[in-house]
Amino acid sequence: MEQLSSKIYKKEFVEAFAGDDSGTLTPRQTPGVFYSKAKPTPVEKVTLLAWSEELAKELGIARPTEQQDVDILGGNRVTDSMYPYAACYAGHQFGNWAGQLGDGRAITLGEWEAPDGKTWELQLKGAGLTPYSRRADGRAVLRSSVREYLMSEAMHYLGIPTTRALSLVSTGEPVLRDMFYNGNAAYEPGAIVMRVAPSFLRFGNFEMLNARKEVDNLRQLVDWTISRYYPHITGENKVIDWFKEVVDRTARLMVEWMRVGFVHGVMNTDNMSILGLTIDYGPYSFVDNYDPNFTPNTTDLPGRRYAFGKQPSIGYWNLGALAGALLPLADKDQLVATLETFKDVYWTEYYAMMGRKLGLDQVSQLDRDLISQFEKTLADIQPDMTIFYQLLIDLPLSVENEDEVAEHFQKALYDDLTPEQKTALYTLISHYLERLNTNKIKRSASQDMMRKANPRFVLRNYLLHQAIEGLEKGDDALLVKLQEAIKEPYSNKFDEFFQTRPGWASEKAGCSMLSCSS
Ligand code: AMP
Ligand code: MG
After folding, report:
1. From the CA of 270, how far away is ligand 2's center (Å)?
2. Is beta strand 96-100 parallel, antiparallel or unpaired with respect to 106-113?
3. Which tens digits make up the pLDDT trace of 430-459?
4. I need a labelling partner for 485 at 20 to 30 A (CA). Which of 4, 136, 303, 421 fits?
């Protein structure tokens, strides 16, 4: 285990690429460079609120006990081997080209080489102004930092590709936020997350270089990304082969989000990882009631571009934007043809995933119809997605009548069923039981498969809301408990949380919908 303050950090990204070394933080366009030096702005007092013990072990990072190590987590200390920088990227926001964006409040300190030889970017989120802060303050509030810290770790334990979070610290400084964008700004406690990933490169890094017609820079970034993160890809056709893999990873990520009911909320191209990771946790949510039209982001109304059910098609749209950025480096027809493989990959993986959720030995064409029937009936009845699938695991193998079925799923329901809904649910379950009868695997094997595909604990927004309220009053009991619960999402160990979203949380800000203000 090594201390944060005595580690010799690597800086291969800054050594490989041109950057703006001036260190000035004045907001500006930075053509010709990939990043700008940006030292974190020190805060009042860095206090450790949460630490990801297992991640730290994996990376070989000693838990900070001295203030000089804690200070690194809050940007109050930068060591000699670090080179703090903010990356320059662009993006499409809500479908529109937004030009240069960049890390407005994220600062990479350096690259940490773990005992297994892998390197991880250590990045502070909320560490102060950078040249890309535009008119914002470069800070983050406790509310949004707790959300990023817990949820990125929760996604990891769900088995979903994601950036990770090593620590959460408070800054001792207030941060002004207009949470509802209605002119009622208020001070909130400030915080900083240290997040880690092999790379935080986004689609937007590539879009930026293409938009600026910096073709040599674009080629350099693509070559570097391939050799460093996709080293098995070589040869003549490597740009297309690599793009194909980004398409595959993104399609698989969308399948995973659909599996657990995760709604990202801001799928702008600057929030799409080139490694296929879930990145940038903002106004995300799990669906509680199964509603394909649900968006957790108030800024996403009324269009609902980033609604639960639209995520796969937005993933595809975003890959289209990436393909556009790669045009100077590859044949257009090949790029388009590769992009078009998204649908095949997505649907193949999607049905396989649904087969596991339903405990099927294989997924035939007829099974695809059954899966559609599940989707339609769930969208109509809108039971709690997580609880519904848990109850499905323990479904009796024969059911007598509609009432018995409705009773079985009672715990998952938010509303009383209409007579039509009761019939639809009974019909669905009857079809499903007929299908289970033809399974060539044992019932217990089918149920095991379902237990691995269907989480029993998901980090619901209202739980986060309660944990944040507690923390703001200095009580970290729920935060500590949730930190444990996220590690065992497929077990029944934390069944105290196996409940539908409570009534009070349906309309409360932060519990169902959130703004981008963070
Ligand atoms: P997001 O929607 O969080 O992905 O942010 C979009 C862009 O706004 C990115 O370039 C962020 O770095 C920037 N940004 C968001 N919040 C802040 C902030 N408080 N200070 C500076 N830049 C910010
Ligand atoms: Mg972002």
Report:
1. 6
2. unpaired
3. 999 999 999 999 999 999 999 999 999 999
4. 4
